[in-house]
Amino acid sequence: MKRAFKYRFYPTDAQAAELSRTFGCVRKVYNMALAARTEAWARQERINYSQTSAMLTAWKKTEELAYLNEVSSVPLQQALRHLQGAFAHFFGKPAQYPRFKSRKKSRKSAEYTASLSASGRRLVVLDPTEQADDLVREVTEVLTSMCARLYGRRAAKSRAARAVAVAMGEADG
Questions:
Q1: Residue 26 burial (CB < 10 Å; 0-12/13-18/19+)?
Q2: Which one-letter DSSP state was computed for residue 92?
Q3: Using CA atoms, how far apart are residues 10 and 16, in angstroms rounded to an integer?
Q4: Which ranges of the chain does DSSP label H, i.e. alpha helix?
Q5: Could you give the CA distance from residue 5 to residue 48 in angstroms, rounded to a whole number?
């Protein structure tokens, strides 16, 4: 069974600025890729995800779009994947042609994909550059929140700590 959790956080001013910059870059990349695909379609050509990804790399190398290098590349690539999905739905006929994102009307969003998975009873980090202590802290926070919903707030911390210890092989199940 799959579960989804919603989290609310209150960013500091620096974090809010970084998020705002990320939202703007995601919107810019999405709109530029949509414009490129629309122009190609008018010329009777097709552009797929891998070609738009190569365009993103080229855009980052230009001087006027160098600011795209200042934000994480993960949400930018995810924006291209969302555009690819929008075109797949359009060509599959259940949806309209993808629309450009507006600075004022569109929802500000950026998707960061996870690099963490649980394999059996072991915690597997897919990104080797991730700091282990930071990862354990983040996983513990998420597990504490999940345990709070399942078992109540009193038992949440102890159950989350136990789950992390089991996942890391420091305790038996």
A1: buried
A2: T
A3: 9
A4: 13-42, 49-61, 73-91, 132-151, 153-167
A5: 32
User: Can you read off the two tokens belonging to residue 47?
Assistant: 């552009």
Spell out the per-residue pLDDT of the chain, length 173, in tens.
677 667 777 888 988 888 899 999 999 999 999 999 999 999 999 999 999 999 999 999 999 999 999 998 989 999 999 999 999 999 898 899 999 999 888 888 888 775 444 444 444 545 544 555 566 666 666 666 665 655 666 666 666 666 666 655 555 54
**Neighbour-count burial for 136-169, b at 16+ CB within 10 Å, e otherwise:** eeebbebbbebbbeeeeeeebeebbebbbeebee
Task: Report the SS3 class of residue 103.
Answer: coil
One-letter amino acid of 148: A
Do 90 and 96 touch, CB atoms closer than 8 A? yes
